[in-house]
From TrEMBL:
In the C-terminal section; belongs to the class-I pyridoxal-phosphate-dependent aminotransferase family. Coiled coil: none annotated. This is PLP-dependent aminotransferase family protein. Residues 12-80 form the HTH gntR-type domain.
Length: 463
């Protein structure tokens, strides 16, 4: 009579199947408002189920307000529940795009994941989880785990000579989340963020997505050109002074002092993104800009390039004045990072295993850089020269007289080469058309040699 067909071997309980069918009939108008439902005993008999099963279905309908039940009266459909049917939208089968394969992939910012000590990390993860206090399985706060913040402070001191308090360190889900939160933290109506040009396009889009207007400041071989800074209408400054992305320069002390004076004079904060300065192949790591003015500079660090990108742990070092507002924003964004990776990373830092891993990878990447430079010298002879400091996981190359734009990049992809023109990361187009970015950290020496020869052949065919 009621057209209820039950799947008795299904995963959904019989009571919920009855509830769902009656609910849909009510919404579709097949059962009118005010109409009485059969008694639980009667419907149970029709469906050959227990009366308790039907009673449970009716209780769900009553709890959600689809029907009204009064003592001594039949259960009736509530008023105002009938809805017109919406047009059926046929769902096509979802097909995930297959990652494009390349004959050579010069992607930037990619560490070599083959050398990450997975078994050791797994051991640390299990060990720290077993020892984790019960209260850390709850909400531990927007600052991040204290042991990790203390270990990061110690890591910054021994690796960069940077003295910071663990109380000024706040854990984030990577540098991108840090920028999202900082955009909210520093936003001022009608103000612009000053940003290096060229800069990392992903970071640019992250800031633009938060509604910030961008004002590009040109970059040369030494980094941000402070002569082009203008304070009127500015709200904050984003820089990569230790290894400018993508051109690779180290901001010299005179420009750093000028930048800080500019920020002080215009009451601005400087966001310093230190994304990969651990991998420097000529001398020690560059001292952060933060060391020159901890109350004016916000330092952003990440472990994505040091360890592996899927480890979504970064951090910011904040001036005291911004602590409470940061906590408020983080609580209302996602509260905190999961504690498990934080605890494992704290132990990895505490045992100095991270230090040894960085030293190993620095040697490895340095050797690969030399292979890249030697192969370029042998293949392209004198028609190119590198930009920037000997650091990081990519190299910026200038080929005077040549032109590398989006069409070039697409033709290269069709040829089987992924390579990024600097133009892709430029805000004001046309100033760096003669430069390419070659990511090499994830490539073995033979892959680098074969890739450069392939790039040379492609450029020769398309010149």
């Amino acid at each position: 009579m009621w057209g209820i067909e039950l799947q008795r071997q299904g995963e959904i309980s019989l009571s919920r199947q009855i509830y769902q069918t009656l609910r849909d009939y009510i919404i579709d108008g097949q059962i009118k408002q005010g109409e009485a439902l059969p008694s639980t005993r009667e419907l149970a008999k029709q469906l050959t189920v227990s009366r308790n099963t039907v009673s449970e279905a009716y209780e769900m309908l009553i709890a959600e307000g689809f029907v009204i039940s009064r003592q001594g009266s039949p259960t009736r459909v509530a008023e105002g529940l009938s809805l017109e049917k919406t047009p059926f939208v046929e769902r096509t089968k979802e097909t995930l795009p297959h990652p494009q394969s390349f004959r050579v992939d010069f992607k930037t910012g990619q560490p070599d994941l083959r050398y990450f000590p997975r078994y050791l990390w797994q051991q640390l993860f299990v060990k720290t989880f077993e020892k984790m206090p019960l209260n850390q399985l709850g909400y531990s706060g927007p600052e991040g785990l204290l042991p990790l913040r203390e270990e990061i402070a110690a890591w910054l001191f021994r690796s960069k000579g940077l003295a910071v308090s663990s109380q000024d360190i706040f854990i984030t889900a990577g540098a991108t989340q840090a920028l999202h939160l900082l955009a909210d933290l520093l936003s001022t109506d009608g103000r612009e963020m000053l940003i290096e040009d060229p800069c990392h396009i992903g970071m640019l889009r992250a800031l633009q997505g938060k509604g910030y207007s961008m004002r590009p400041v040109p970059v040369d071989a030494l980094g941000l050109q402070t002569d082009y800074l203008e304070g009127k209408g500015a709200g904050a400054i984003y820089v990569t002074p230790s290894h400018q992305f993508p051109l690779g320069g180290i901001l010299p002390a005179t420009r750093r002092a000028e930048l800080i004076r500019f920020a002080r004079d215009n009451n601005l904060y400087i966001v310093e993104d230190d994304y990969d300065s651990e991998f420097r192949y000529c001398g020690a790591s560059v001292s952060p800009l933060y060391a020159m003015d901890p109350q004016r500079v916000i330092y952003v660090g990440t472990f994505s390039k040091i360890l592996f990108p899927a480890l979504r742990i970064g951090y910011v070092v904040l001036p005291l004045k911004l602590h409470s507002q940061w906590r408020y924003l983080r609580i209302h964004a996602d509260v905190q990072n999961p504690p498990f990776e934080q605890a494992a990373l704290a132990e990895y830092l505490h045992t100095r295993k991270l230090d040894r891993h960085v030293q190993q990878m620095r040697r490895l990447y340095g050797q690969r850089r030399q292979v890249l430079l030697q192969t370029l010298e042998e293949t392209f002879v004198k028609v190119w020269h590198p930009w920037g400091d000997a650091a990081g996981l990519h190299l910026a190359l200038e080929f005077p007289g040549l032109r590398f734009d989006s069409e070039f990049a697409q033709r290269a992809q069709n040829y089987g080469i992924r390579v990024t023109p600097v133009e892709y990361h430029s805000i004001c187009k046309g100033k760096h058309l003669d430069k390419l970015l070659i990511g090499y950290g994830h490539l073995e020496p033979d892959e680098i040699r074969k890739g450069i020869l392939l790039l040379h052949d492609f450029m020769k065919e398309n010149s």
